[in-house]
Design brief:
Layout lengths: L2 H23 L9 H24 L21 H10 L4 H25 L4 H10 L6 H7 L8 H8 L5 H19 L2
Length: 187
């Protein structure tokens, strides 16, 4: 520690000591607690604080090296595989047409299962409802799963034409919503 630092430390200790003694004895030792005295004590405290800050800035900063955080294990959520299948079915290639057929087939099987379980009909009756389009009120969903259902009204077809999403994706969403509503009504 330098001579100046030692002198300031000694002066600070004397000031603190005198302050403590004056509080205990209730005497000010000839000093009046005026604005000037309080200001000098405050200035001394600021100088001492700046000295400690300066010393801290010049010292080495110690840090701990931490390891990499643990990677979370991603658990697949129900429907992830179907979402990937729908995503890969978008577009116009032979592979995508095959994927679209697979998605349609999967939704058809799901609709049959839901009709059998929640509407208490046989698999053949469920197939007949899907072929006729009577399994749902949604004309888009009914037309997606059956080729025998008449085409939707012109207004619906125009709305499908001017959407940002592909027609296939809109049909899948309508069909999934219709299947979910069947399941919820049948509970």
């Amino acid at each position: 520690m330098s001579l100046t630092g030692r002198l300031l430390s000694l002066l600070a200790l004397v000031a603190v000591g005198v302050g403590l003694v004056s509080v205990v004895l209730r005497q000010t030792f000839g000093f009046s607690l005026t604005y000037t005295f309080v200001t000098l004590v405050g200035a001394l405290a600021i100088v001492q604080g700046l000295r400690y800050v300066s010393r801290r800035r010049q010292s080495e900063y110690a840090e701990t090296e931490t390891g990499d955080p643990e990677q979370r294990f991603r658990v697949p959520t129900p429907g992830d595989e179907f979402d990937r299948q729908v995503s890969s079915a978008l577009g116009w290639s032979l592979r995508n047409v095959s994927e679209q057929r697979d998605v349609r087939s999967r939704l058809h099987r799901t609709a049959v299962d839901v009709l059998v379980i929640h509407e208490h009909c046989s698999p053949d009756e469920a197939e007949a409802h899907i072929r006729a389009g009577t399994w749902t009120d949604d004309v888009i969903a009914a037309g997606f799963l059956s080729e025998e259902v008449p085409t939707p009204p012109l207004r619906t077809r125009l709305r499908l034409l001017f959407r940002r999403e592909s027609r296939f994706l809109v049909q899948v969403r309508h069909t999934v919503d219709a299947i979910v509503s069947l399941r919820e009504v049948g509970r």
